[in-house]
Amino acid sequence: MSRHISSLLAIAAVCVTLTPTPALAQAPKKEVDCSQVKCVALTFDDGPGKYAGKLLDTLKKYDVKATFFLEGQYVKSRPSYVKRMVAEGHELGNHSYTHPDFRTVEKWDIRAEIKKTQDAVKKAAGVEPKLLRPPYGMVDLQVSDVAVEFGMPIILWTGGNEDWSSKNATAIKKKSMEVAKPGSIVLMHDWVKQTVDSMPAIVKSLQKKGYHLVTVSEVLKGQDVKLEPGDVYPVPAGWENK
Ligand code: NI
C-alpha cells in the first residue's frame, strides 16, 4: 500500500480568547498566531485510515490540530471519522477518490476523482475540502487547471516522515523531528500503525521544542502566503505559480 513515491521535497505569545462559557458550551477557542510563534502543520494522507480514531484521540488529548488529505473511497467507508475531524477542528483536503497519478489520466477523470471525493466528504460531514493534494504529490498544468475549476490551491509538503517506507516507530519519530521546522508542512499517513502509535511521543517532543501544531491554513497565514486556486505550495522546482 505504498503511496508516496517521492518526497518533494518564536517564542510563545499565544492569544487565548476566553469567553464566558455556560455549562456544556464549547471549550474556549485558542488562537495561535503563527507569525509570532513556531508552527508546524502535520498532514495525514490517504485516509481516513483504520487507525484514524486512535489518532484523533491523541490529537484531542494534546490539543493539536491537523490536516487530513482524504481519499474519497475511505471517506465513503469510514464517514464517522470525517465527521469527527470536522467537529474537532481539523482541516480537510481532497486527495482524490482512488489515488491515481493525475499525470497519467485524462482531465475528465481528474475532475471526477475530485468531485466524487468532495461529494463524499459533504455527505459525511456537511463541508467540502478547500485544499487539494494530488496523489503522490504529482502536479502538472492539467492538474492545476482542474484545481482552478474547483477553486482549490494545491498543497504539497516540505518534508515527510517516510512512514509508509520504514514502518518503524523509531525511524518515524526521528524523521518527524528532523523535518519539523518553523512553517513546515509534514507528510504522514494515518493508515500506518507505527505513525499513530508514535504520535503521542512525536507531539510531546514537538511541543517541548516550542512548536504549535496547527492546520495548513494557519501555517500559510503565519507566513503571509496567499494562494490562488491552482497555485502550488511549496512551489516545486521548475514550477511557477501563475
Ligand atoms: Ni497519497
TrEMBL record:
Species the sequence originates in: Nonomuraea deserti
Entry keywords, A to Z: Hydrolase, Metal-binding, Signal
Signal sequence bounds: 1-25
InterPro entries assigned: Glyco_hydro/deAcase_b/a-brl, NODB_dom, Polysacc_deacetylase_ArnD
Source organism superkingdom: Bacteria
Domain NodB homology residue range list: 38-214
Protein name: Polysaccharide deacetylase family protein
GO molecular function, one term: metal ion binding
PANTHER family xrefs: CHITIN DEACETYLASE 1-RELATED, GLYCOSYL TRANSFERASE-RELATED
Gene Ontology cellular-component annotations: membrane
BP term (GO), one: carbohydrate metabolic process
